[in-house]
Amino acid sequence: MAAFARGSADAFDALFLRYRQPIYGFFCRRIVDRSHAEELAQETFLAILCARNRYEATALFRTWLYAIALRILQSYRRKAAFRGMFSGTLPADEEPGTRPGIDAGIALREALSKLDRIEREILMLREFEQLSYAEIAVVLGIPVNTVRSRLFRARGALRDLLATPAATPGAQALSKREEHA
Fold first, then answer.
1. Angle at CA 99, nearest 5°, toward 112 and 161?
2. Confidence grade of residue 166 (pLDDT, cut at 50, 70, 90)
3. Contact 140, 122 (CB under 8 A)
4. Phi and psi dihedrals of 9, rounded to 5?
5. Is the pLDDT of residue 45 over 80?
6. Cα(77)–Cα(10) distance, rounded to whole angstroms?
7. Rounded Cα distance, 172 and 68, in Å
8. What is the per-residue burial (b if ≥16 Cβ within 10 Å, else e) of 110-132?
9. Which domains can be identified in the chain, with CATH numbers?
10. Distance, CA of 145 to CA of 133 (rounded, Å)
């Protein structure tokens, strides 16, 4: 990033090639619509282009990049919620992984969506983006010990949510009929 800040176009190409897939994945895990995820990833790299003169190497580039991506995601969610107020609908991709599908991760997605937003974000930054505790603290602007305690709570809550089998409406109706029989 320092080379790009000095004007090297090749340095930006290298950054883009290295981080485009992780940033795209970051957005895909948080919103449903893949085309929106791609647009947000592009917006992140556009923000890097615009901010290259203001970049200061006080943290790892990756930390700075994810902080930008998180702010863009928060802005997207605010705009989507605002538009939803006028259209009378909530955005379908407001929460991560609420897309219906037939893959093995459905239970995980549903459990993640039930977590507190900040705990979910910490868990996803740690487990999916592989950020360190210190990097997560910088990205979210919270103390490292808060990251550790909330990550511990999020993992425990996720474990509990995945351990309790979700009862299906059909199974509940069947058990009520069995009670009356």
1. 25
2. low
3. yes
4. -70, -30
5. yes
6. 33
7. 45
8. ebbeebeeebbbbbbbbeebebe
9. 1-94 (1.10.1740.10), 104-166 (1.10.10.10)
10. 8
